[in-house]
Specification:
Blueprint (H helix, E strand, L loop, with lengths): L2 H18 L3 H4 L5 H8 L3 H17 L4 H8 L1 H18 L6 H29 L4 H30 L2 H6 L2 H17 L19 H30 L4 H28 L4 H20 L5 H11 L2 H12 L3 H19 L1 H13 L3 H21 L6
Length: about 400
Amino acid sequence: MTRPRRGRIFTLVALVLAAVNLRLAVTSVGPVLTEIRDGLHMSATAAGLLTSVPVFCFASVGLLAPRAARRLGAAPVIAGGLALLTVGLAARPFAPGSALFVLFSAVALAGIALVNVLLPSIVKDHFPDQVGSVTGLYTVALNLGATTAAAATVPVTGGFGDWRLGLACWAVAALVALPPWLLMARERPATPGQSTDAAPIRVSRQPIAWALAVYFGMQSTSAYVIIGWLPQIYRDAGLSAELAGVLFATTSLLGVPLGMALSALAGRVRAQSGIAVGLGLFGVAGYFGLWMDPASAPWVCAILLGIVNTAFPLVLTMIALRGRTPAVVVRLSAFAQGVGYLIAIPGPILIGALHDATDGWKAPLAVMMGLMVPQIIAGFFAGRDRQI
């Protein structure tokens, strides 16, 4: 085994360990939110703020990542992000009040935002000929981490007999991911974040960047609506809570094998427009099925929506492919994710408000079908064989 190969395997392990942590801070809270609110005397307003903090952090802090990476290098910034995540996850369960709990959550999410933006550039730099397959691998790790935290937080809390310990234990996963990145940070090579370009490209002036940002925002909107409302849609249609949970889990678990396969395919073709359009059509069909009657073919709708959720690994792959150099990928990733998350903020709120206003799901689901149109259009342009 040659040294370069050992180095690539080490980097791959570091990528996977980092990716496992990218949703733990979010998905570990929901299952024990009742206990958190009771323990901290948290108001409904504070709980609502807690659910909106992730998107705001991903949008705002992510935009700062390119400047930090240019000064320090991508690996040191990722290591710093994982350190912030570790501190935030370890400290927030022991916060004496709601304000500090939200603050430490923001610290953890700020760390995630930095890592979110920079991982595509690491893939581009270390695996330029395997962008699709490596991106697929780390998005699978991300999904598995998120699912594990959602499923295991309650049993772990029961085992400890304390929700604080059940929540704090996830800091261990972040701590385990940190050492490889500290070692990579010490090497300080010519890193992806440090550009030697005389005149750095302003990605905000590039049509491809805007197409990627809109596509990222639209797929995020769909994903957050599915996460936030799909179980309730099924339950309101008369399905049991248990079946609604299984159907929702199906949409999430489908992303593991499909995301891996789709990213690998996307990395092998010159243009990904057809894939993006196809996923959008699956989304239209899934939301249309729910609009007609969620209870008539619930498994079909769950599978269709699970397929459209693989737009997330697709857009990460496209971000890495659309940048000509790792330095450009850093800026492109920050722009697409930052602007994209801003676009996604109103979606779940609007859907909830429409449901309350109409006392049903027809109007919200019609809106979701309509939002597939800009997703399809943006995906078509983002997937064309162009590079910045």
